[in-house]
């Protein structure tokens, strides 16, 4: 399967290091880490538990600051952005899919998707949310609350929420971790299908080799260094 | 076993750090303290004033009448071989120099009392004051700056104060039992010249002796009780003192119901959240080898230990609070109260047990159903029918325990339903108002649109918070306004020239010199004749056969009425139907008070029959009159034409106003007419006001505990809500909102919630006050502008400030970590 990519670099990490101060020394999670991702690419980050995959993802998404080095996202040097601009960048360029779905329990599926659109001030939030819920096959479950949906359906709402804002970059953190194998497989299909159609750049963290194999690129975080394997 | 104990201790010490467990402990502590306080106070007041009726009555059986005791009654008591004695009680002013004081005088024959004893300081060799001597309560001594050995003037008699009366039985019924009391020997009564035929006094026949003879006599008297007579015995009726204090206690208990409910709600919510937080721990313990019943035992032991410790603390607090309230009430209580019955000390402990165990059992049973697999994945324990049934049964048992504890099941149940329905209704209205307010914001602002979603998401929390806050603030405002404005409003609406003195027991031969005295002092007043009589027939047939049960309950049909006569309608009583009679009319005609006529269905032309001390008289209703009962003028339900009544023996009544500068006239009047009974309305109102104030202080203390419970509940739920908001805030920030936006969203939500709650509390308080003004004080309702400003402000400040203090802003890395760990 050929995925559309461009030469445009949407995400670049240069000499990134992250350490945490402990009582008498510092704990180095990784250092001198470099990564370049082109628009439309799919990238899997794999590694052992505790290797720092999630921390790396939070740095790449601008949710955390590196101890050293620079990260450029859609042409912006993240370290130079103020809180407001960074929030705006998240609202317009980035989306997340989590292992635990993270839907607000008191809101319907429709309102959960609308929420993301409302944050970016979308004037057609309701229309867009309906469209994306239909896209993920939940056109008839819009008014259902998360507790009334199965795990797979909840993750599809989360996917609809992620794609509804038409992000340039989609970060997925163990998106099938809470699902059984068959449902997980269906979710993967849907995710990649939408990714291809929308030409979104997808960066995902996973332990699942099958899922990692679906990505164009796969990097392993080991001993604080990224090792890229040929897909 | 040792391992179990270690596990239990470790569990308790670690859970002491959680908010839920702390809130639960605190709420239980307050509930136990409150229940102990009420049980002890209630027991002492009830046993002191109700249950120790023998000592209260001063006898085993008391016959009370507004007329001198009939000879046949005395003969009955004598024939039954029972000990008996007579007491006459009446209000009168005593004076010492220029100082005067309204007191309740008891003139008793010997022996007196028949049961219980009069305790005095210094102790006296006699059971009652000998002739020439009076025993008085401390209030009289302190107000008139007297001490034993001093002389006082009562009517024409000079009497010596023999002792200070510390406590005494047979205080009488009605408000007179609260007035400062003076006991004298009946041998001195004639010398005072106060009582004459027709004087206002209560005559009592006290009887004591063998139980079986007493029962026979009581039955015989009950069967032949006359309209002016009442019977008080150990087992049936209680004196009014007890009834009044019983009502006051009932009021305090109902106030406490709200606090107990709030405590129960806090405990319930804390336990629910606490047990939700225990799922993983239970699964872990199961995986380590414990079974379901071990888990039940573990958590039950934890609850029981908490209950034991809090019982001790709560009971101690309750005892201290009870002492505080008794200190406030001490000088007003008629006599020293008995020590509480031992088991009453355990009432709070029992209430604590009911609250903790009945509310705690269902979640604990739920915990035992956890499976080890929930260690690996999130499992939501479904609430099956059995669990729901257990929970429902526990709620019912708890409600029953509460109602039993309050000893007024019907009133408590009504209040319980009102609170629950009111709270739910207020919550729903508040939620709708919030939606209405957020809608226009949502059309214009991004924050408004997020707020709309937030309101949808937090609707349950908003309902609960609003319901509790509105109820509490309304209650607080009502107590506050009642204590400050209500009485003042009522007093200020009394016109300047309203009489402040009543003179009763004026004999016919005193009317002319009294009028002369008053006109010399340039005091305008009108004397009204008074005859006592009872309504017996309507249009020739017994009245009880013609009215429905509700009408037969009417105040005017179950007692003797003060009847008057006049050829002119009273200036302050406009005629509303029919016409006033001609002064030369010879037929018996009457004018009836309008409301009484409406309630009994009487119209001009009807004929009413009266029993006037054995004489019967029938008269035609000529007209209806409107009477302003709060005018402090002598007012009558029924006024006859002069021709019908003027031949009857009567006493006269009048009222007038003395300015503070004229107060010496009252002393002069009593010097010239010592046998008249002068009643200072100011002193009477002052006595009532003091009681109201002390009762207000006691209810304010309970209200303070209620507010504490309410504040605890609100802070607990607010804290829980803010914890949930941390998660939402993390999600919103990850989805693209800035930290400032999430902060503004939280504050806007809390600000609107506070304002809406304050506004609704004002509306509810004003509505309730309007009803009180209209129906209790019969005044036009008025707005309380200060409350309109203060309540919304206080409510808004409470929500926003506690939100600002309890809210913790998340940094972006924290947001992501929180979402990953959730």
Automatic annotation (TrEMBL), chain A:
It comes from the Bacteria. GO terms for molecular function: ATP binding; ATP hydrolysis activity; transmembrane transporter activity. The keyword ATP-binding applies. This is ABC transporter, ATP-binding protein. Transmembrane segments: none annotated. One of its GO terms (cellular component) is plasma membrane. Pfam families: ABC_tran. Keywords: ATP-binding, Nucleotide-binding, Transport. Residues 11-231 form the ABC transporter domain. Belongs to the ABC transporter superfamily. Macrolide exporter (TC 3.A.1.122) family.
Automatic annotation (TrEMBL), chain B:
The keyword Cell membrane applies. Pfam families: FtsX. The keyword Protein transport does not apply. The chain crosses the membrane at residues 21-41, 248-271, 298-321, 341-365, 386-406, 412-434, 464-482, 700-718, 750-774, 786-806. GO terms for cellular component: plasma membrane. This is Putative ABC transporter, permease protein. It is found in: Cell membrane. Residues 256-371, 701-809 form the ABC3 transporter permease C-terminal domain. Keywords: Cell membrane, Membrane, Transmembrane, Transmembrane helix. InterPro entries: ABC3_permease_C, Membrane_comp_ABC_pdt. It is a multi-pass membrane protein.
